[in-house]
Amino acid sequence: MNEKGLTIVEMIIGMTISVIILMISTSMMVNIFYKDTKSKQSEILSQVKNDLQSEITVGVRWAETLSFSDNELVVDNSIYRLNDGVIEKNGEAITPSSVYIEEFEIDDFSTTLQQKSLRVNIAMRHRDFSSVSDSLEVVVSQRKMEIEEQ
């Protein structure tokens, strides 16, 4: 008797091998997509960090008047305030809604009364991916520039 075809055991073994290969490849694809998404969210935090560093450093460095309290920094006529996880400048958000600011802390590092030095510490995380977080610590001194006429 010469019968052609597969037995049920051969079919079960073939299906099991196929399912295992499918599970491994799916797991690898999910992992690749997750890492790519996490990388993009980290890039967003890095850009926010750079923008805040530039904004605060330039503002403080050339400020005529400077004051601060908990979660608020006043540079000339600009008020930087932490409000519901967003840093605002004069009431307008300067951080994107996808980034949650956890901490906005300002400490006085001044050695003279005429020129202030501040340490600004900002802790942030991505709103959708709480495992993606970063922080910014900036120490900046106020500069005074006097121009003499000749």
How would you describe this protein?
With 150 residues, the protein is an alpha+beta fold. Helices cover 36% and strands 33% of the residues. The longest helix has 54 residues. The radius of gyration is 28 Å and the shape is rod-shaped.
Summary?
The protein is α+β, with helices and mostly antiparallel strands.
Keywords, please?
alpha+beta; rod-shaped; 33% strand; single chain; 8 strands; 150 residues; five-stranded antiparallel beta sheet; three-stranded antiparallel beta sheet
**Strand/helix succession:** HEEEEEEEE
- Alpha plus pi helix count: 1
Q: Specify the oligomeric state.
A: single chain
Please state the structural category.
alpha+beta
Note the beta-strand portion. 25-35%
- Trace the largest sheet across and list its strands: 1-2-3-4-5
Give the proportion of residues in helices: 25-40%
Give the mean pLDDT: 88
Number of strands: 8
The coarse silhouette is rod-shaped
Specify Rg, calculated over alpha carbons. Answer: 28 Å
- Uncertain stretches: none
Quote the distance from N terminus to C terminus.
116 Å
How would a crystallographer describe the biggest sheet?
A: 5 strands, antiparallel
Topology:
Blueprint: H1 8-61, E1 66-69, E2 72-75, E3 78-83, E4 86-89, E5 92-93, E6 99-108, E7 117-126, E8 133-141
Antiparallel strand pairs: 1-2, 2-3, 3-4, 4-5, 6-7, 7-8
